[in-house]
Each structure stands twice: as C-alpha cells, then as structure tokens.
Design goal:
The chain is an alpha/beta fold and 268 residues long. It has helices at 65-78, 92-108, 138-149, 179-189, 221-233, 243-246, 250-253; strands spanning 5-10, 24-33, 37-40, 50-54, 82-86, 111-115, 126-130, 154-157, 162-166, 175-176, 194-196, 201-208, 212-218, 238-242. It has an eight-stranded parallel β-barrel. A five-stranded antiparallel beta sheet has the order 10-9-13-12-11, with helices on one face. A hairpin with a 3-residue loop joins strand 2 (24-33) and strand 3. It is globular. The protein starts with a strand and ends in a 15-residue tail after the last helix.
Length: 268
C-alpha cells in the first residue's frame, strides 16, 4: 500500500512543533516583491524541506528571469527539495515564473507545487486541489483532477473551512467564520447539524431577521479525516495542510510519528 506524504506549511519559528512527526516542512517565509525580487520574511530559515512563495506584494513589473534565478539559488543554498507557489493573483508574469521554475526544477529533480490555474503553465508540477467546496462533490473534483493530471501529480490541499452563506448564494462564497465565531453561533442557535457526504463537511441552516435564510458549512477533525479517506481510495496519497489547522487532528488524519531512536545496549 502506498505511503502517505504530508506537507505541512508553517513559519520557520514554529518548526520545533513538527519534531517527532513524519512530515515534510514547507516554510512560510518567502514572497515576491517589487523589483521584482524574492524576499525572506525570516532570517532563521533552516535547511531542507520546501519553500512557500506568495505573491501578495507582486506588482507584475520588471523582468522575471533574474527573480527566478533568485529562487533557484535560494533552493540550492537551503537544500530545499522544491517549492510551493501560493499565487492568488493571475498575471502573465506569474505564469512565466511558474513555467520557467517548472522546467528548471524538473531538470534538478526538485518538485514544484502549483494551484490548478497555473497547472497549464507547469506541466511537470504537482497540482494542489482544494479540499473545501461549497457545491458539487469532492470525489468528483478529485476524479476530474486525476483524469486531467494523472495520479502522480495530484495533491489534496486540506483546509479547515468555516463559512456562513446567504441563501441563495449566486457566487458560491460565504462569510468566513472564526472557530470562536462558529462556536458562539452554534451556542446561540443550538442547530441540528448534518453531514454532507458529497462535500465531506458538516452544515446547518438558520433564519436571520435581517438577511433571511443562512447556510453554514464547516469542517472539523472528522470531516478532514473523511476527505483524506476519499482521496486515498482514489489513489491520492500526498496531502498539504497548514500546521495551525492540522495539529489538533494529526493522528486522526494518519500523520505518523517518527520511530523513537534505539537506545544503545551497555555491555557488562
């Protein structure tokens, strides 16, 4: 049976929390900025694992070639085995960056991880498929991804989602809820909570005097576990998750502990 691989994203200063777990750390410490240049948010980034690069400060101006070289040099210097491109915007320069890094990483035996929108520009990269959805079926989403990209390229990106939707919801997007906000809402309403087998998430409905009907969709340890199980049955065995969300459910998700080091025997 194939072994699961869990990629855990977290800031470098939190890396000690992963001690004892069999995971691949992905360091939340890099961003694309003006210039364009690669910027580090933390000067104490350890070696090994993956780098995570976000594009929140990227304006799309300037040549991308030197920037890509900065990424390659950083991976080489830190002995990273790959990078996660956490790009939220959709700009032609970002497509160029994804395509160039995909080619260069493949030559070096490194692994690139991209979202679905950048998959056409990075044919060697692994593609992160979000676990959270507000309609349709997780199984169908993964089956379509497997048919499109192949089993070896699909990664399930786990996310602990909590959202409050107005009904009807033409955009398919709701108002995010914090853990405390969800708890307070449930304490106030005492709703009947149901489980959606298609979404692999829990939900309840309620009426608001100001906004009418609401639909609340949320995850917990059981729903994340169910999503992992659906993926496994389809042949997906690589998962990505933020440690802040996965930590309380690490064992439940199947993240393994590292074997304890053997104690040496003293000869008498």
């Amino acid at each position: 049976m194939p072994q699961d691989a869990f990629i855990i994203t977290l800031p470098p200063r939190q890396l000690p929390a992963l001690r004892g777990w069999q995971v691949i750390p992905a360091h939340l410490a890099y961003r694309l900025g003006p210039g364009p240049h690669l910027f580090r948010a933390d000067s104490t980034i350890p070696k090994s694992g993956l780098m995570v690069i976000d594009d929140r400060d990227f304006d799309g101006l300037g040549p991308t070639g030197p920037l890509c070289q900065e990424v390659l040099r950083e991976c080489q210097a830190r002995s990273f085995s790959g990078a996660v491109l956490d790009f939220e915007n959709r700009l032609p320069p970002l497509e160029q960056i994804a395509g160039y890094l995909d080619e260069q990483f493949a030559r070096r035996g490194w692994t690139l991880y991209v979202t679905g929108r950048y998959a056409p520009h990075a044919p060697h990269a692994r593609v992160m498929i979000p676990s959270a959805l507000s309609g349709g079926s997780l199984r169908q989403r993964l089956e379509e991804a497997l048919e499109r990209f192949g089993e070896s390229r699909v990664v399930l990106a786990l996310e602990l989602r909590r959202e409050d939707f107005y009904l009807p919801s033409p955009t398919g997007s709701g108002q995010p809820l914090t853990e405390q906000g969800l708890k307070e809402l449930m304490d106030r309403l005492s709703p009947s909570v149901f489980f959606s087998g298609d979404l692999c998430a829990r939900y309840f409905t309620y009426m608001s005097r100001d906004h009418g009907a609401h639909f609340v969709l949320f995850d917990d340890g059981d729903t994340l576990q169910r999503k992992v199980e659906v993926a496994r049955k389809l042949g997906v065995h690589t998962f990505l998750a933020p440690w802040a969300e996965a930590a309380p459910y690490a064992s439940q998700l199947g993240i393994q502990r590292r074997p304890a080091p053997r104690q040496g025997h003293r000869h008498v």
